[in-house]
Amino acid sequence: MSETVPVTEYPCPHCESMASAETGCPDCGRGPDPDAIEVVRLDAEIIELRTRLQTIRAEAAGVETQLRNASTQRDAAAFRVRSALEPVAPVLAPPAWFTGTGTTPPPPPPTIPAPPRLPSEPAPERRLTTLTAQNVLFALGGLLLVVAAAVFTAVAWAQVGVAGRALILAAATAAVLAVPPFAQRRGLTGAAETLAAVGLLMILMDGYAAWAVDLLGVTNLAAQVYAAAVCAVTAVIALGYGRLVGLPGPRIAALLIAQPVLPLLAAGADADTTGWSLALTGVTALNLVILHRGRFAPAGTGLLAYACGSIAAFCSVIVALGGLRDAGTPGRAAVAGGALVLVAAVLTAGTVLAAHREAQMYAAAGLTVAIGVAAGGVVFRLDPGTPTLRFAVLALVIAVPAAVARVRLPEPVGRGPWGGALALAGVPALTVATAALIAARSSLEAARPVLDAPLGWVVTGSTWDLPVAAVAVVLAYGILLPARLRADLALTALLVLALLVPAAFRLPWWTAALLGVLVTAGAVALATRATTVRRLGLRLGVSAVATAHALATGLGDPGVAAGVCAAITLIGVTAATLVHSGPRHGDVGVAAATAGLLAGPAAVWLGLLAADTSGTVRVRALFLVTVLLCAAAHRLAWYVPQVTGVALLLAAGTPLWALAGSDPGALYVAGALLLVAVLRKPYALVAGVVLVIGLLGWTGPDLAAVLIEPWDGPVTGSVDWSTPVAVLITAVAAAVAVRITAVNGALLVASPLVALAVPLTLAAAGAPWPVGPLATLIVGLTGLATLTLAPATPPGFLIPFGVLAIVGLAGATHRPGPMLTAFALVAVAGAVIGTAARDEPARITGWLAATLSTVVVAYTAADLAALDAGGTALAVLAAAAVAAVLDWFLAARRPREALAAAAVAHGTALIALLISGSTGWAALIATLWSVVLAVRALRPGEPAAIRNQHVIAAAGSALLGWWLFLTAQQVTTAEVYTGPAAVLALGAGWFVRRGRPELPSWAAYGPALGAAFLPTLAVIAGSSPDDPQYPRRLLLGVAALAVLVAGALARLQAPVVSGGVVLALVALHELAQVWDLVPRWVPLALGGLVLVGVATTLEQRRRDLARLREAVSRLG
């Protein structure tokens, strides 16, 4: 144990300041607190002990691992020892007496010591605990006794008379029940409990036996009644026996056996559901008595009484509810309800006896609910009134005593009846709410069709009692709920009545809208006086529901809908104005202002619709409202975010509501974009994105005519004049939106849209093809060149001009002439960008575009000149040579840009090779390109690595030309093709290895040797007797021998191995040619000799093979 560190400071438990262990807390003045000091000291000690425990655990884990490893190693060593100690019988010399050379008697045979046995750890034997063994024996003994009794009752019963049977059963039962007291005194409690359970079970079997033989005429009784009597007698005997012997088991058995007594009696009396409920209630009462005697302790019989009583009470409630449901008259319903109330009263009495306040609260709640359910079952079967009204009045009647009990009863018991009354009132409240929803739907159905419903139509589908029931429910809740909630309750009641009244009194449908507006006004007025967030949320929620219903109903007629929207605007603006400087400015004012502003434009639109104006007039009026709202967002000092949000929302909807007019919608959308840009408020970006999407929808066909249709053919699409105007307005809006003051910046932002307007304007003016595509291409190329030459241009602005250039280029490629012009323009623009652009990526892109366009120009020019495939290939190769020349000049000053030109040059040469049309032209193309590559390798100042690459490429191109020439001349000798390739690869390997002596010979000469040997080997392997290839076989053998000798002289592994393998393969092939001439015994004899020789000198051969492998591995 470590030494205890004294505590000098501790946190004061009263003020949480740091206190001294000697003087106490300096803040609150209290003296030292020993308990707090002890807590601090023990915390420190616990931390230290935990650290020590972790250290010890880690050390124990390490030792355990070492022990496991040692055990594994020990077992392995022991196994090896056992394997080595196999017993062998010794060979003894014959004794003298056996050979007859002596007279000495035979000695005893020598004793051979047995090998020592290695110690091994015995496996620990698993043993049962004493308690487990006892439990097993008890269970088996009890089971045997029960089985014996059952066998006796079922089998041996008929072999004795009635008297004998009774004597035997009584004696057996008495004998079994006499043993537990003796076992109890000797401390064998388990045995005593087991035998007592068996004896009590035998008493039940005695009862069954008496019934089976009709002892004393017991079969005259009903079977259920007799069974109840047997259970009752057995329970009494068990209870007395348990008290006599002092065992808890018989008392538990007595309680368990007593449970079915009353239900069996009810079954014997053929009781109805009420009788069954009463019987189960009696069982519940019995268990409550047992619990009361045991002071409600949840142990032993108490635990069983809790379980059985709960089950009985639950079943009693279920049965009583079933009887209440099936009652056909008020009288029978009253009886069934009385049974339900009785079981609730019994449970309540039990909680009172237990003196448990929480349980009393729940029991009182259940009793209140039971009374309400019982009374409801009675009133439901009464004639006057409707069920909803009767239930509402019943809830009101129960609410009065429940409210009194809430005050008079102690806490928390008083909350039980109060909660039960609230739950009961919820049933008619739910019914009234459902009826209100149905009435609201009826109002909506009466207001159909939308904007064309006759004003004289009335609402149907409800009755007068529903509003009365709603009032009764509200009064019940008003009695139960606190006074501070009554205003909100009254407001909710007004909403429900507004929904119910039109249908209940057959009023015209528009009265629903009128009542909804009135409720909205009242709710907003109360919301302005709300003092808490919860009340404010409720009142605003009521206002929202009433407003939504009024709007949905008012849509039956444009004039009614306009009036509702105007009223909402008036209510919202008035409320917002009244509370703008009060405490509710941040919630009520915001909500009211938002609702009023949203309803204003709708009122204007619907009012004009009611006045039978055209859609164009409505669209213009709504755009004017949008302008006014945007202006108000700049000028007003109150509710600026709300005005701005409504203005942005209305502006964002321009693409939709502009559909109603005949004016070009694109102009309205572009104007809305300008308004949003000028507004410069939060969330303007979202509205701008929506408007841009809408503008694309309006101008989509025209944009497709300019940007997509040119891809399909030489056509000129028609464009409406409003589209270029809208695009220009959008350009102005884009320049304004980013808050740029400099002229250059504004032009940068607006330039893509202005560029787009050029082809749109030409299309609107009806310009013929290919004026439009070429103009689009020129605009795109001009923009790209200008922006790449300008300083610090964001890359994103290049994308629109690139798209325009691609679209223009695609539109001009349908005919050779315009295509030649278009790619010539691209070549010029690419050369300008590659020469003067400020960024290297832009210059690289420019050179790529220029060189590729030059290739296309060459191909198109050849096509216009009607050249054949060879001439076209030469023209394309000339373009590749131009790119190679550009690579020559760029390599000195801009080596990274030169790579782009070089890539285009090589790719173009490959294309020229592929389109040449014949192997002869292809051979010429490959040979000419090898000349170009050779000249490129001669550039002064070229690094050696790059020059070597060009030399290798030139040699490969020349080799390809040679192969193509041979193919054109129909040469079939394989070595004519592979020989130059092998020589070229051999020269390249020698050149590389001269500079890198450490390079393996396989990497330097392996490809050349493979190219030289493998094709010839393949030809020889595929030869036939008709064409034995004698010269080729001889030359291949000579070549392989020469390579082997040269490799051995140069000490190179690749020539030695490859030459030797090829020479061996040639020899095997020659052997295979004469194999059939050799006698069959010769191969067998040779094989045998080889095997014998190898077996005789096996170790020597192994050493020779190792030396050979080592010698070969030492070669370079």
UniProtKB/TrEMBL annotation:
InterPro entries xrefs: SCO7613_C
* Residue stretches spanning the membrane: 136-157, 163-183, 195-213, 225-245, 252-269, 275-291, 303-321, 333-355, 362-382, 388-409, 421-444, 464-482, 489-505, 511-530, 560-582, 588-609, 621-640, 646-676, 683-701, 721-738, 745-765, 771-790, 797-813, 819-837, 844-867, 873-891, 921-938, 950-968, 974-992, 1004-1024, 1030-1049, 1081-1098
Kindly provide the name given to this protein in its UniProt entry: Uncharacterized protein
Residues annotated as coiled-coil are 39-73
List all Pro residues biased stretches: 104-122
Question: What segment(s) does the record annotate as region Disordered?
Answer: 95-122
Which keywords does this chain's UniProt record carry? Coiled coil, Membrane, Transmembrane, Transmembrane helix
NCBIfam families, sorted:
SCO7613_CTERM
